[in-house]
């Protein structure tokens, strides 16, 4: 008789189509099927355990099966699983909005929910565009984004994306965007000087462009972008989908440079990695631009069916409570320091050309490999055999552990990754672990 695992493998190969995955390669490999998880570990259908080295795609915060978040979701399930935000409201959405307004940079007073990061940025783009129209400034229709930017996969968010590999094919479908060099304030200044009065908003990932392979901006860049936007009367959208909720060592990355954007986009870590939920925060000035009598048609005609889902909001509220109760941010500093020290030995591996780190976000760049070698993928497969899940972006191996990962597990994750890189790249001698 076919085992449960074998049947799952067969049906996965016959019925599924995985995201960002070349299915031809997928069907040829053994799939890892996650059945359970606990803390920083994932457990597959055959009982093998793996460190969750990328926080289940950058969204887990306090670990899996956190008792506080588990019980918050269960409690909410006993009340209502879903009720709409269109024309109705519910307690978890209201309480969470209050908390987000209190926690986020000053000036952000309104919370518009959706259910993923792509929509969170798409909503900011549409709001910015509509806001200028309703002010009577119809020239301001353009957006400035950064080369190698990633803001999601829907057509609007891809329009402000700048990753050739993912985005170039769709160019004919997209709206035109002005592209600035990442981290180069002079380039932003030049674009704004030339086009400032046609620009609705600048959109950036603060401090570090995650999907670009952890492209780190120089200190002061975000602050400069804010000042340039102010000088040219342009709105600023900060996409904190990846960097928000403690990833960089502070609750929001904007705090590192005392920046208040006009829009703040949140998703991934918002529910602690439990359920899909996103928010676009806006200032009161933006909000007021949408007020008017019904027949003035200043309404923001946008909203998703599962916008502000109660289970997801309950998880997000519990996630924020855990930040306070476990003093997550205070305890993060030493972990970030430990991770930097551990990475020193990884940087010495012969195939490693650069190691970039911001908080608990790490990109380990491997150099000298052809596209078809899929070196990042080879490292992933090797790390898996050694008990750690990592996922590369091209030839950059990404580490993004849950904020709750213990120092011991951080050591194990980095050591395993170093071993996997050495094995996959054919290096022999490993430098001593820190
Ligand atoms: C992941 C990501 C998104 C898209 O979020 P989804 O929930 O996958 O749609 C947008 N912006 C940034 C910076 C991201 O890292």
Q: Kindly report the spatial arrangement of strands forming the biggest sheet.
A: 4-12-11-10-7-5-6
Which CATH first-tier class of the largest domain would you pick? Alpha Beta
Whole-number count of domains: 2
Q: What is the fourth-level CATH superfamily of the largest domain?
A: Type I PLP-dependent aspartate aminotransferase-like (Major domain)
Total beta strands: 17
- What integer is the average pLDDT? 96
Q: What is the share of helical residues?
A: 25-40%
Structural class, judged by helices and strands?
alpha/beta
User: Can you tell me the overall shape?
Assistant: globular
The DSSP helix count reads 15
CATH topology of the largest domain: Aspartate Aminotransferase, domain 2
Largest sheet: 7 strands, mixed
Walkthrough of the structure:
This protein is an alpha/beta fold and 434 residues long. It folds into two domains: 32-61 and 329-425, Aspartate Aminotransferase, domain 1 (Alpha-Beta Complex), CATH 3.90.1150; 69-325, Aspartate Aminotransferase, domain 2 (3-Layer(aba) Sandwich), CATH 3.40.640.10. The chain contains 15 helices and 17 strands. The strands form four sheets. A seven-stranded mixed sheet has the order 4-12-11-10-7-5-6, with helices on both faces. A four-stranded mixed sheet has the order 1-2-3-15. Strands 13-14-17-16 form a four-stranded antiparallel sheet, covered by helices on one side. It is globular. It binds pyridoxal-5'-phosphate. The site of pyridoxal-5'-phosphate has 15 residues, from α6.
